[in-house]
Design a protein that fits this description.
The complex is a heterotrimer.
Chain A: H1 2-36, H2 43-47, H3 58-63, H4 67-98, H5 104-118, H6 121-132, H7 138-145, H8 157-184, H9 189-197, H10 202-213, H11 215-230, H12 234-240, H13 251-261, H14 265-295
Chain B: H1 3-37, H2 42-47, H3 60-65, H4 70-100, H5 106-115, H6 121-134, H7 141-145, H8 152-163, H9 167-175, H10 180-191, H11 193-208, H12 212-217, H13 226-232, H14 241-266
Chain C: H1 3-33, E1 37-43, H2 46-61, E2 64-70, H3 72-85, E3 91-95, H4 99-104, H5 112-117, H6 128-133, E4 135-136, E5 139-140, E6 143-148, E7 151-155, H7 156-161, H8 171-182, H9 201-208, H10 225-239, H11 252-255, E8 264-267, H12 270-278, E9 286-289, E10 300-301, E11 303-309, H13 316-326, H14 329-339, E12 342-343, H15 357-366, E13 369-370, H16 378-394, H17 399-416
Parallel strand pairs in C: 1-2, 1-3, 10-13
Antiparallel strand pairs in C: 3-11, 4-5, 6-11, 6-12, 7-8, 7-9
Helix pairs in contact in C: 2-14, 9-10, 10-16, 16-17
Classes of the chains: A mainly alpha, B mainly alpha, C alpha/beta.
Pfam families (chain B): BPD_transp_1
Family (chain B): Belongs to the binding-protein-dependent transport system permease family.
Organism (chain B): Leuconostoc litchii
Chain lengths: ~300, ~280, ~425
C-alpha cells in the first residue's frame, strides 16, 4: 500500500520544485494581472489601491475600438505567419548543413551562427540601421549595383515589417540551430547506413530519415517560436518604435507603450490577455495536431 | 564506400561550406563591429559608423569599464550564475517528470507551465515585486535569484528530449530494481548530454547577463551585477557607444569560452531510440 | 558524468543557499539598526559625480548617506515599484516630467511648509520654469536641482555660406535659412531637423505662436488657430524637403558634423558636450543660439531634475537636511563641475565655471522657458501627438482636420480618467 502511494507521488516530487517556483513567481502574478485587466488601475491607483475601480469589460471593449490596437494585432499576425515558418526552416537547414562536417570549419560555424544571440542590441541596431539605410546603406547599394531600385527598408510602411522580420529571423537562428544540432545526434547512424545500402541520395535521406526523426524538436521549436513571435517586441522597439505610422507596431509594444510609458496598467494588462488568449489557443491546436499525428 | 560516392560527398561538403561561409559572414558582422568598435573612441564611432576597423586603436573604453564597483559586481554575477545552474537541475527534473510519468493533471499542469511564457514580463513585473516584498525578500540575494530560477522554455526543452528516450531502457532498469532517482541521475542525465550542453549554454548566458531583478530588488548597490554596472555608465540623454561596446565585448568573452567548452557535448549523442 | 561529483555539488549548493539566507538576514538587521542613514536614489552613475558632495555632508552632519544609482533606462520602473510597495528611498531625484505622475501615486511628500520656512529653498532662488515643475495643485513636492532647456544648435560655417552671419531670429528667418541650406548640392542635405519622435517639440513651437495648451477648465485646445498654424508651418519644412520625413538614424558626427546633413536642430544642453567631444567640429564651426521667436515669444521647454522626499520615509528630518545641503549654491556649482548638469539656482550662474559663451546662451534662454503642463496624462498626450504629427508630416494630412481628431481624442481620454 505504502509503496503504491510512493509510486503515485513520485512524479510530483520531480516536478514539485520547478512548479512551486513557477506558481509563486509566474502563475500568481499572471492571475493578479488578469484581475488588473478588469480595473482602471493607473499611476494613481498604484499608490492608493482604494482608488482602483472594477470596470468590468470596459478595457476589452475599448481595445476593440482602438484602431492602434487593431493595427498592432494585424501586424503581429503578419509577423507570426511569415516569421515562424522562416525561423523553423532556416534554422533546420543550417543545423543540417553544419552537421555535415566535424572539422574546425564546421565547429567555428556553430559559434558564428550563434553570435547574433550574444551581440549587444545596440551594436545590432547600429549595424542593421546602416545596412537598411535608404541612400547609403549596404543593401540598397547592392540592389543598385545589380540594376534594381532602392527600397525604403525602414521607412516604407509595407517594407518595414519585412525588414524587421529579416532582422528577427537572423537573430533567432542561432538558438534553434543549437537545439536541432543536439536533436540530430539522437538519430541512430544505422538508419543512414541502411538507407545508403538501398542507394538513397543525401536529399532522400534528409526527407525520409532526418526530418521525421526530428519531429520532437521541430515541435518544440514551432511551439516556442510561435509563443515568442506573438510577443514580438525587441525589433520594433529598437529599430522603429512601431513606426512609420504604426505599421510595425506589435501587440507587445502596444502593451509596453500603454503600461510603462503611459502607466495605464489596466488597459495594458487587458491587451496582453487578448494576446494570451490567442497564444494559448494556437498552442493547444499545435498539441492536438501533434497527438493526432502520433496516434494516427 | 565507393570512390565516386566519396567524391560526390566531398563536392557537396564543399558547396555546403561555401554557403555557410557566406551566410556566416552576415551573421557575424554586427558582432565584429561591436568588438572592433570597442577599440575606437566614441568620437570615431559617432563620426563614421561605416568604417569597420579603428583608425587608432585605444584601450580607453576598457580602462573606463573597470571602475570601483567592478569586483563586487563580478562576485554577485558569479553567485547568480551559479544558482541558475541549480535552477537548471530543477528544470531537468520537471522535464523528466512530465516526459516519463503518467499522472493526474499532467496535461493541465504542463499547459500551465507553458502559459507562463505567454504574458510579457513587463506586465507581471510589479506583481512579482509585490509578492517578493510580502515575503520580505526585497534587497536580498535570495529574492534576486528566485524569480528567474526555473523557466518554462527549459522545462519544455528537457521534456521534449527526454520523451525521445526509449522506454525500454527505463523498463529494463526498473526490472533491475533501480529507483526513479537513480535512473534520473544514471540514465536520463548521461543520455541527455547534448541537450544539457545546450541548456548549460543558455543557463550561463541567463545568469551572466542578469539585469532586471538585481536592479529592481536591490535597495543597495551591493547586489548589483555586471550588466547593471555597465548600464550605469550610460547618460540620461546620450549614448557612449565606445564604452557600451567595450562592456559588451568584455561580457561576451566568458560566454564564448563556455560555448566552446559545452558545444563538444552537443555532438555526443547516444543512439538510444533504435527500437521505434 | 560523474554522479558523486554532482551529488557533492548539490550538497555544496544547499549549504551555500542556507548561508546566503543567513547572510541576507544579517544584512537586513544591519540596515535596521543604523537609524542615521539616509538612502538616496539617483539616476546614472552616482559614485563619481555626487560622492564628493555627499562626503562633505556626512562630515558636517554625521548623517550617513547610502547612494543608490539606478540606470536612467530603468529609473521609472524602480519608482513604480516604490510607489506600489510604499517602500523606497528617503530622498530621490525626480525627472521634472515625472513629478505629476508620482504626486498622483502618493509617492512624494508635500514639503510646502519646509520651503516656506527656509529662505534657501524658496521660489525666488530658482528658475521660474523649474519651480513650476515642483508644484502640483498649489503644493510643493520638491526642490529644483538641475535644469535643462532647449536651444538652437547651428553650423556657423554653413549658415554663412547661405548669407546668414547670425543665426535665425524668428520663424520666417528659420524657414528661409533652412530652405537655403537644404538647397546645397549633395545627397540627403537638409536645413533643419524636426525630431519625429519628440513629443514636446510641436507643443513648444505652438506656445511661441500663442497657443495655450491646457485652458482653465483643464481642456486642451489643439484645434485652435495658434496650434494649427504651427503644424502648417512645420509641415512646410517636410513638404518642401527642408526637413527629412523620417528619422535618418544618423549619429551626431554624421548629421551635424562633417558635411552637416542636418545643420540646424533644437535640443538640450547635453548636446554641447556631445558635439564638442564627438562631432569632430572646430569650435568656430558651430554655435548655440536662443530659439527663433514665433509670433508671441521664443518660449523654450524646461526640463531637468528635482529633489523629492519619499512620502513613506522614516528619516524625514535627515532627508530634508540632505535636500537643503544639495540645494546650497556652492554644492550646486560643485555638482555642475562634476556632472555638467546645469544648476537650477539662479545665483549659481555667477560662478566663473559657468561663464562660457555657449552656457550663457542657455542661461538667457532659461528666462524664457516653461515646462510642459503638469498633469499625469501628459505623457500619453505627447505619444498621441507624435502619431498626429506623423500623419501631418509623412502622409501630408490636413493640419486642421488632424488636430481636430487629436484634440477630441485627448479631451475624451482626459474626461474618462477624471
Amino acid at each position: 500500500m505504502k509503496n503504491n502511494l510512493m509510486k503515485k507521488l513520485m512524479p510530483y516530487t520531480f516536478i514539485f520544485p520547478a512548479l512551486l517556483l513557477l506558481i509563486l513567481f509566474s502563475i500568481i502574478p499572471i492571475i493578479i494581472s488578469l484581475v488588473i485587466s478588469f480595473t482602471n488601475l493607473d499611476i494613481t491607483g498604484l499608490g492608493n489601491w482604494g482608488a482602483v475601480k472594477f470596470i468590468g469589460l470596459s478595457n476589452f471593449i475599448n481595445l476593440f475600438h482602438d484602431s492602434l490596437f487593431l493595427q498592432a494585432v494585424g501586424n503581429t499576425l503578419f509577423y507570426v505567419v511569415i516569421g515562424v515558418p522562416a525561423v523553423i526552416a532556416l534554422s533546420l537547414a543550417i543545423a543540417i548543413m553544419i552537421n555535415f562536417g566535424q572539422n574546425r570549419f564546421f565547429k567555428l560555424m556553430r559559434l558564428v551562427f550563434y553570435t547574433p544571440s550574444i551581440t549587444n542590441t545596440v551594436a545590432v541596431a547600429v549595424v542593421w540601421t546602416f545596412m537598411y539605410n535608404p541612400s547609403t546603406g549596404l543593401i540598397n547599394n547592392i540592389l543598385n549595383q545589380i540594376g534594381l531600385g532602392s527600397v525604403g527598408w525602414l521607412t516604407d510602411q509595407n517594407v518595414a515589417k519585412i525588414a524587421l522580420i529579416i532582422l528577427a529571423v537572423w537573430k533567432a537562428i542561432g538558438l534553434n540551430m543549437l537545439i536541432f544540432l543536439a536533436a540530430l545526434q539522437g538519430i541512430p547512424k544505422d538508419f543512414y547506413e541502411a538507407a545508403e545500402l538501398d542507394g538513397a541520395s543525401w536529399w532522400q535521406q534528409t526527407i525520409h530519415i532526418t526530418i521525421p526523426s526530428l519531429k520532437f524538436s521541430i515541435f518544440f521549436v514551432s511551439v516556442t517560436t510561435l509563443i515568442g513571435w506573438f510577443q514580438f517586441f525587441d525589433e520594433p522597439f529598437v529599430m522603429t518604435k512601431g513606426g512609420p505610422l504604426g505599421s510595425t507596431n506589435s501587440v507587445a509594444l502596444f502593451v509596453y507603450q500603454n503600461g510603462f510609458q503611459q502607466s495605464n496598467f489596466g488597459y495594458a494588462a487587458s491587451a496582453s490577455f487578448v494576446m494570451f488568449a490567442a497564444i494559448i489557443l494556437a498552442t493547444l491546436i499545435q498539441f492536438k495536431l501533434q497527438n493526432k499525428q502520433q496516434n494516427g | 564506400m565507393s570512390n565516386s560516392l566519396l567524391k560526390s560527398q566531398q563536392n557537396s561538403r564543399f558547396i555546403v561550406s561555401v554557403i555557410l561561409a557566406v551566410f556566416g559572414f552576415i551573421m557575424i558582422l554586427p558582432f565584429l563591429w561591436m568588438f572592433l568598435s570597442s577599440f575606437k573612441t566614441n568620437a570615431e564611432i559617432v563620426q563614421n559608423t561605416r568604417s569597420f576597423f579603428p583608425k587608432q586603436w585605444t584601450l580607453e573604453n576598457y580602462r573606463n569599464l573597470f571602475h570601483s564597483g567592478f569586483t563586487l559586481y563580478l562576485r554577485n554575477t558569479l553567485i547568480i550564475t551559479f544558482f541558475s545552474f541549480v535552477g537548471m537541475l530543477f528544470n531537468a527534473m520537471a522535464g523528466y517528470g512530465f516526459a516519463k510519468f503518467k499522472f493526474k493533471g499532467r496535461g493541465v499542469l504542463f499547459i500551465m507551465v507553458l502559459a507562463t511564457m505567454m504574458i510579457p514580463g513587463q506586465v507581471t513585473m510589479i506583481p512579482v515585486y509585490l509578492i517578493l516584498n510580502q515575503m520580505h525578500l526585497t534587497n536580498t540575494l535570495t529574492g534576486i535569484i528566485l524569480p528567474g530560477l526555473v523557466g518554462a522554455f527549459s522545462i519544455f526543452l528537457f521534456r521534449q528530449f527526454i520523451s525521445n528516450i526509449s522506454d525500454s531502457i527505463l523498463e529494463a532498469a526498473r526490472l533491475d530494481g533501480a529507483s526513479e532517482w537513480y535512473m534520473f541521475w544514471h540514465i536520463i542525465l548521461p543520455i541527455s548530454k547534448p541537450v544539457l550542453a545546450v541548456q548549460g549554454i543558455l543557463t550561463f548566458i541567463g545568469g551572466w547577463n542578469a539585469f532586471l531583478w538585481p536592479l529592481i530588488l536591490a535597495n543597495d548597490e551591493k547586489y548589483y551585477t555586471l550588466s547593471v554596472g555597465l548600464q550605469l555608465l550610460q547618460g540620461q540623454h546620450t549614448t557612449d557607444y565606445g564604452i557600451q561596446m567595450a562592456g559588451s565585448s568584455f561580457m561576451v568573452i566568458p560566454i564564448i569560452i563556455i560555448f566552446v567548452i559545452f558545444q563538444k557535448y552537443i555532438l555526443q549523442g547516444f543512439n538510444i531510440q533504435g527500437d521505434k | 558524468m560523474n554522479i558523486k561529483k554532482i551529488a557533492i555539488g548539490v550538497a555544496i549548493v544547499a549549504i551555500a543557499g542556507g548561508g546566503f539566507v543567513a547572510l541576507n538576514q544579517a544584512a537586513n538587521n544591519d540596515s535596521g539598526s543604523s537609524s542615521k542613514t539616509v538612502s538616496f536614489w539617483y539616476g546614472g552613475d552616482g559614485d563619481t559625480d555626487i560622492k564628493p558632495i555627499i562626503k562633505d555632508f556626512t562630515k558636517q552632519t554625521g548623517i550617513k548617506v547610502k547612494i543608490q544609482s539606478v540606470p536612467w533606462s530603468q529609473y521609472n520602473d524602480k519608482l513604480l515599484t516604490a510607489a506600489a510597495s510604499k517602500s523606497g528611498p528617503d530622498l530621490m531625484v525626480m525627472g521634472t516630467t515625472s513629478v505629476p505622475n508620482f504626486v498622483s501615486s502618493n509617492s512624494l511628500m508635500d514639503i510646502s511648509d519646509v520651503i516656506k520656512k527656509d529662505k534657501n529653498l524658496q521660489s525666488n532662488k530658482f528658475f521660474k520654469g523649474n519651480v513650476e515643475t515642483t508644484k502640483v495643485n498649489g503644493k510643493y513636492y520638491g526642490v529644483p536641482w538641475y535644469t535643462e532647456t532647449r536651444v538652437l544648435y547651428y553650423r556657423k560655417d554653413l549658415l554663412q555660406k547661405v548669407g546668414y552671419n547670425e543665426p535665425p531670429k524668428n520663424w520666417d528667418e528659420l524657414y528661409d535659412a533652412a530652405n537655403k541650406l537644404s538647397q546645397r548640392s549633395g545627397k540627403d542635405t537638409y536645413g533643419f531637423s524636426i525630431d519625429q519622435s519628440e513629443p514636446t517639440f510641436g507643443f513648444m513651437m505652438a506656445r511661441q505662436n500663442g497657443a495655450t495648451l491646457l485652458n482653465k477648465n483643464g481642456q486642451t485646445e489643439f484645434n485652435q488657430t495658434a496650434m494649427v498654424e504651427t503644424m502648417s508651418y512645420l509641415q512646410k519644412f517636410v513638404k518642401n524637403g527642408v526637413s527629412p520625413k523620417e528619422d535618418l538614424k544618423l549619429s551626431i558626427g554624421e548629421s551635424f558634423g562633417n558635411k552637416g546633413l542636418l545643420p540646424m536642430f533644437v535640443s538640450g544642453p547635453w548636446m554641447v558636450k556631445s558635439i564638442e567631444q564627438d562631432s569632430g567640429l572646430k569650435d568656430s564651426q558651430w554655435g548655440v543660439a536662443q530659439l527663433p521667436a514665433g509670433k508671441y515669444n521664443n518660449m523654450s521647454n524646461t526640463g531637468g531634475g528635482d529633489l523629492a522626499v519619499f512620502k513613506y520615509t522614516s528619516h524625514k528630518t535627515e532627508a530634508i537636511k540632505l535636500m537643503k545641503f544639495l540645494s546650497k549654491r556652492e554644492n550646486q556649482i560643485k555638482y555642475y563641475k562634476n556632472s555638467n548638469s546645469l544648476p537650477a539656482r539662479t545665483d549659481a550662474w555667477n560662478d566663473k565655471s559657468l561663464q562660457n559663451t555657449k552656457v550663457q546662451v542657455i542661461r538667457k534662454q532659461l528666462n524664457s522657458s516653461q515646462p510642459m503642463p503638469l498633469i499625469k496624462q501628459w505623457d500619453q498626450i505627447g505619444q498621441n501627438y507624435v502619431k498626429a504629427w506623423e500623419k501631418i508630416s509623412v502622409e501630408n494630412a490636413d493640419p486642421q482636420k488632424t488636430m481636430n481628431t487629436f484634440n477630441d481624442q485627448t479631451n475624451k481620454s482626459l474626461d474618462t480618467s477624471k
